[in-house]
Amino acid sequence: QVQLQESGPGLVKPSQTLSLTCTVSGGSITTSYYAWSWIRQPPGKGLEWMGVIAYDGSTYYSPSLKSRASISRDTSKNQFSLQLSSVTPEDTAVYYCASDPGLAYWGQGTQVTVSS
């Protein structure tokens, strides 16, 4: 069974870049036709899909993030990462990584607070 684990700082200052990593076990991030997403949930709001990196390294992002998001991967470590630039307090959320297709497997989530 695929397992995902998010890691990264829990506190980021406004205007800085938020960086999170998702470590995948039980499956390879390069397995054909699989993809790996980042999703977040701000306090009191619904889930927001942020972007995805596919098995071949191609990436797709939510237009709402206006080019602030970047997803990359390290295949040697079976990890993929999220960078979100120019953060504001509105980026405070629980951040999840999840597997596609079907968002079948999720990490436990990590709280990120944007505050000075």
Describe this structure in words.
It is a single chain. The chain is an all-beta fold. The protein is built from no helices and 10 strands. The protein has a 6-stranded mixed beta sheet, with no helix packed on it. A hairpin with a 6-residue loop joins strand 4 and strand 5. It is globular. The mean pLDDT is 96.
Task: Give me a quick take on this structure.
This protein is mainly β. It has no helices and ten strands.
List its traits.
116 residues, mainly beta, 6-stranded mixed β-sheet, globular
Blueprint of the fold:
Layout: E1 3-7, E2 11-12, E3 18-25, E4 35-41, E5 48-54, E6 59-61, E7 69-74, E8 79-84, E9 93-100, E10 110-114
Parallel strand pairs: 2-10
Antiparallel strand pairs: 1-3, 3-8, 4-5, 4-9, 5-6, 7-8, 9-10
What series of H and E elements makes up the topology?
EEEEEEEEEE
Which bin fits the share of residues in helices? under 10%
Spatial arrangement of strands, main beta sheet = 2-10-9-4-5-6
Compute the gyration radius: what is it? 13 Å
